[in-house]
Amino acid sequence: MKTSKLPIFSRLEVCPDAETLAAAAAQRILAAAQDALAQRGRFSLALAGGSTPRRCYERLRQAAFDWSRVDVYFGDERCLPVAHPDRNDVMAADAWLDRVPLPAANRHVIPAERGPEAAAQAYAGALAGALPFDLVLLGLGEDGHTASLFPGNEALGRTEAVVPVFRAPKPPAERVSLSLDTLNSARRKLFLVSGAGKRDILARLAADPALPAARIHGAEWLVDRDAWPGA
Question: What is the CA radius of gyration of the chain?
């Protein structure tokens, strides 16, 4: 595993492949959980969607851990019906959450089926007293978006804890996302980036601080060799 630094990255590790990245991410999450439990007695985590986090979640379900003191939230969600296979909460449940003894009350899903505005308001209420998160997991889109905060979208400039997203450039157009302020307030931020399709945008991030992912401060990045432009 190679470690590199650029101004945008608090810490960056380039992993040899996607599986090594998934294992490193799972280790980071478990270490952050242990720290939070030791300091505050609970661990709060906001999840990302996508194929790269899924590999990490599949590893976490194999860990021997006391999940009863873990609270799971979501960084964003697509406005689709409950149980739709393209929802982030469905993927996380299948890969991890339904396969460990996590109490139902500790799983806090975004009610995105209500539509962007109503869901954002409801989820903001669910976050009352929960912020700042101990850790948020983040992905990187090929256009520089993270969570469901897209370049040029009005949601990027909103300051509520949870923001409605309209006119997203990739389907579905309606979504719900944690705001930049909420993401940045987390005690730790961890990006997971895999695949050659992310190489160009990673090369652009340091030069374009307006990109949504570049506006997450103090994050750690795990990147596989296929994605890393310096490989």
Answer: 16
Picking from 195, 201, 182, the residue whose alpha carbon sits closest to that of residue 224 is 195
Domain covering 10-224, topology? Rossmann fold (3.40.50)
Task: Copy the structure tokens of residue 80.
Answer: 């689709």
Q: Among 106, 94, 2, which Cα is nearest to 44's?
A: 106
Each residue of 2-38: b (16+ CB within 10 Å) or e? eeeeeebbeebbbbeebebbbebbbebbbebbeebbe
DSSP letters along 106-126, please? GB----GGG-HHHHHHHHHHH
Helix, strand, or coil here: 230? Answer: coil
Pairing of strands 70-74, 43-47: parallel
User: What are the boundaries of each domain within the chain?
Assistant: 10-224
**Matching residue, tokens 């992310």:** 198
Q: Give the pair of three-digit tokens for residue 114.
A: 């209500």
Tell me if the pTM is above 0.85.
yes
Taking the C-alpha atoms of residue 31 and residue 129, their distance in angstroms, rounded to an integer, is 23
Structure confidence by residue, pLDDT tens digits, 32-81: 999 999 999 999 999 999 889 999 999 999 999 999 999 999 999 999 99
Angle at 133 between CA 112 and CA 105, to 5 degrees: 55
CB 133 within 8 A of CB 36: no
If we measure between CA atoms, which residue out of 46, 45, 101 comes closest to residue 77? 46
